[in-house]
Amino acid sequence: MALLQISEPGMSTAPHQHRLAVGIDLGTTNSLVATVRNGVPQCLQDENGKMLLPSVVRYLPDGQVAIGRVAQTAQATDPRNTIVSVKRFMGRGLKDVAHVETMPYDFVDAEGMVRLRTVQGVKSPVEVSAEILRSLRQRAEYSLGGELTGAVITVPAYFDDAQRQATKDAARLAGLNVLRLLNEPTAAAIAYGLENASEGVYAVYDLGGGTFDISILRLSRGVFEVVATSGDAALGGDDFDHRLFCWILDNAGISLPSDRDSRRLLMKAREVKERLTLDESVPIRMTLESGDEVDLVIERQVFVDITVNLVSKTLKPVKKALRDANLSPEDVKGVVMVGGATRMPHVQQAVGELFGQTPLTNLDPDTVVAVGAAMQANVLAGNRAGEDEWLLLDVIPLSLGIETMGGLVEKIIPRNSTIPTARAQDFTTFKDGQSAMAFHVVQGERELVSDCRSLARFELRGIPPMVAGAARIRVTFQVDADGLLSVSAREQTTGVEARVEVKPSYGLADDEIAGMLKAGFEHAQNDLEVRALKEQQVEAERVIEATEKALQADGELLNEAERAELDGAVAALRAAAEGQEARAIKIQLEVFNRASNEFASRRMDKSIREALAGHKIDEIRI
Amino acid sequence: MLDMKQDFFELFGLEPRFAVDLDRLEQAYLEMQGRVHPDRFAHLSDAEKRLSMQWATRANEAFRTLKSPLARGQYLLELKGVDPAFETNTAMSAEFLMEQMEWREALQEAREAADEDVLDDLSRRIRRDTKALVEQLEAEFDTAGDLEAAADTVRRLKFLEKLQHEINDALTALES
Closest to B46 (Cβ–Cβ): which among A319, A421, A593? Predict the structure, then answer.
């Protein structure tokens, strides 16, 4: 007789519990959070009904942090402590940042990433971004009425490894479980493609506040395949503001404005730029603190003339992406415009001319990325049934390589490789008896190391003494689905295993993040432990739920003894999760992961077999 | 039991031949990614996430290899235990070396002239030659079974691919 199952009191019996997942567009100028509610994607509003959160963070002397509009209004009066466009500093050293001379910040040129000295001490761009993300997380949790299972955070497609890593660190710091880093143009393509049921080759032209991306995608039923991507991680609407700012200074005869005047003039420049989208000419009137008067009128054509080379700067990556994709402009069925800066008429005109068609502007260029991210988050959280999920195949934007003799780069993974991907390359020793080897991991397209971005350096030690050229050291690059790289090296000939994992030098080291997390909880010591316990409990629940589901579907893949072992591991994990010790749960999770390895791998095999079997049946039918 | 040691043809249920039905290949690849891609496992256990990344990586590698005629030819040679010896010039015929020199000269001239049309024209010629070599390779592998000849053709294709990259770089340089 079959026994009826009765669940434990307090345990959820709902098989399809909706998990709260959000998509976050962490923009240079504005940030947004969106979710899918009752099957409909929507951007979440703050208590004043605003969707856009200005990406501005102000550190106040009393230890408070203001984020968004409140901070924005203070930027002209407290420029040094009010950080705008922090995305431009993510994963960047001081020398990589354009226009530092006109920025009102007190920069600290720290190793790897630039830092900013504020009234609350030195802050890294990761911490500043985390404030923005935390604010959006709170908005979402308030609006959705519960803790988030996870978030998809968007990044410019052209972001390199250091910038991606920095973004992921910021999300961790903000207490978010990152389901995936998603490229912004790809997110837009999901939103656009699903809404319009598009098929064929599409280009996404994404000009944001500080970054430019172009992605070429092949859309077919249920598949979004990025064929090529290119861009400029330091080109955006901000640069148009800056041109206008310089024009105002020139024409008003102002040479060296104060920090506060600079900030006011930049804000004015942005306002004028936006008005020029509709108006043919716009007056610029302002009295500066210095007493200088600005009284000018700018015609749209003048604005076009002073920014035309910024627009043509975006067309080069477009051509490069098309060439990488082996396509001509006429192969492209539609061009989706994303990012506030694509509202400028001369941008639309230039893109239209290149592709020989009117660009698609029917989706709100400010929200389309967040909406696409929310749709993807909903899928990743497991809220959709298997059949109506779509498949997303994205690529890495820049080649990854290793420095070889003479400062040259040996490319290991070429740009536009579909991720996840792994490639290996063998290297050898240069001198007799050499026992160590230094590796320098770089990213970029140029032949010379000095023209590429340095990602990490590491050493492999303990190579047994051999004559020069006899050792075989295999270096393996693995890029995961977030586009993040890990590298390992191993000496092959002697079987001596020496392995190294790369630590990102441009991101923050793990202990630094841990330190920041701790610092954030200084005021409430228990919070840290409570949070850790909660996190482990949620993780345990997630794993138990997933395993039970898997056992229901594929229980027959285990024999009785194996089944008993796995059931035992589930029971032990459940018992630990009911306790109050985070560490105990963590240990039990590790035990569980080991116990479930075999089951997971048999399920994967079965799934692949089914995929192939389905394929063969199709052929027989033909 | 399926395992990672399967060759790429087996992985997609294809015959280990040079001629490949690309539609069938793509369909098998997409079906496999649909099952193993990390996006399907984002909410599952670490063990499953790890497996998924390994399989998806493998599927991408296999698809990339089989899709490109050059990579596929190279891979077939490897499966059959033939080393195409790209690094040693001794494996190349005098005729092929002459050809290489002529191509290089043409590229150099086009570069110096900084003429987009000349570069485009060169690019078209490379594509035409590549197409002919691919047809030749198919006969060598699948009809004649002449692996020596196939290895020679693969070396030629490799050279043309490298040349094509250099032309693309020159075109990119012209635009900046």
Answer: A593
Strand A21-26 and strand A150-155: pairing? parallel
Q: Are A421 and B171 inside 8 Å of each other by CB?
A: no
Residue A330 tokens read as: 């006429």
CB atoms within 10 A of CB A145: 8
What are the phi and psi torsion angles at A199 (to 5°)?
A: -130, 145
Rounded to whole angstroms, how far apart are CA atoms B57 and A592? 25
Provide the 3-class DSSP secondary structure of residue A83: strand
Which is higher by pLDDT, A495 or A297?
Answer: A297
If you ran DSSP here, which 8-state letter would residue A207 be given?
E
B82 in A contact zone (CB under 8 Å): no
Tokens found for residue A314: 């975006």
The 10s digit of each residue's pLDDT in A475-514 is 999 999 999 998 888 888 776 666 666 655 555 556 665 6
Residues comprising chain B, all counted: 176
CB contact under 8 A, B55 and A604: yes
Higher per-residue pLDDT: A11 or A36: A36
Residues counted in chain A:
622
* Paired tokens of A109: 């040129």
User: How far is it, in rounded angstroms, from Cα A296 to Cα A265?
Assistant: 13
The nearest CA of chain B is from the CA of A289 a distance in Å of 41
ipTM of the complex model: 0.88
Give residue A614's pLDDT band: very low, low, confident or very high (50, 70, 90).
low
**pLDDT score for B3:** 59
Burial A283-322 (b: 16+ CB within 10 A, else e): ebebebeeeeebeeebebeebbebbeebbeebbebbbbbb
Q: Are A515 and A173 in contact (CB under 8 A)?
A: no
How confident is residue A1, by pLDDT bands cut at 50, 70 and 90? very low
Binning pLDDT at 50, 70 and 90, where does residue A81 land?
very high
How many alpha carbons fall within 13 Å on the CB side of residue A462? 11
d(CA A481, CA A421): 8
Catalogue the E-assigned strands of A13-84.
21-26, 30-37, 40-43, 53-54, 56-59, 65-67, 82-84
Dihedral sign, CA of A28, A31, A36, A41?
A: negative
pTM recorded for the entire structure:
0.86
Mutate to test the interface with A, among B31, B32, B45, B130 (most CBs of A within 10 A): B45
Per the structure block, which two tokens stand in for A613? Answer: 């079997």
Q: Where are the alpha helices (DSSP H) in A325-409?
A: 345-355, 368-380
B6 touches A: beta carbon within 8 Å: no
Give all domains of chain B, ordered by start, each with its CATH number: 8-67 (1.10.287.110), 94-175 (1.20.1280.20)
- Please write the tens of the pLDDT for every residue from A146-179: 889 999 999 999 999 999 999 999 999 999 999 9
